[in-house]
Write a structure and sequence with these properties.
- It is built from no helices and 11 strands.
- The chain is mostly beta strands.
- It has a single domain, classed as Immunoglobulin-like (Sandwich).
């Protein structure tokens, strides 16, 4: 399991704090979910529900103002991520970005960062909003990424009462990874 470190700098002294690494178990399923922006396919019931999130804007590692649920499953061909982002005022969900490939700095969004080599130094970023606009990037270091990378992936979204939902499909052929790693 990879270990993450947080760094806090104050004038001339540097304090290093170890941050507890978190993990989740992606469940292999035989049938892929239908990408329709709903989490009502029976296959999602096999996934563990992840709810331990923190927000970074506003606040740094703050308690979320609204809950989020994340589900991760996979088939032989693709990784599937389902997310339900609750919002007590769903008519206020910000989604001005409509075109694929554009950044989403002013949108309510789901951002997925994958590190398929489990190195903690590089990875892949997938970002979407309520309009199912897609934006992807390649992390070249833990804090910088290039937008000159594009890959094939799909997303469908919807609003469901007091939440918006995203279903994401990332084909394994779209990502390099080490098949010998089990994390």
């Amino acid at each position: 399991m990879a270990t993450s470190f947080g760094f806090v700098c104050a004038q001339e002294s540097v304090e290093v704090q170890q941050v507890e690494a978190k993990s989740l178990r992606a469940v292999k399923v035989n049938t892929a979910p239908i990408l329709d922006g709903k989490l009502d396919d029976p296959v999602w019931r096999h996934a563990e529900v992840v709810t331990d999130f923190h927000q970074n804007r506003p606040g740094d590692h703050a308690t979320p103002s609204e809950p989020t649920e994340l589900y991760v499953i996979y088939t032989s061909d693709a990784l599937y991520i389902g997310a339900r982002m609750f919002d007590s005022e769903p008519d206020q969900i910000a989604a001005p970005t409509l075109r694929h490939g554009q950044g989403m700095p002013f949108d309510d969004r789901l951002v997925i960062i994958l590190d398929p080599f489990n190195q903690g130094r590089a990875g892949f970023r997938f970002e979407t909003n309520l309009n199912a606009a897609r934006h992807d990037a390649l992390y070249t270091t833990p804090t910088s990424f290039t937008l000159d990378w594009n890959t094939n992936w799909e997303v469908a979204t919807s609003v469901d009462g007091k939440s918006w939902i995203a279903e994401v499909e990332i084909p394994f052929k779209s990502l390099p990874f080490d098949p010998n790693l089990d994390t």
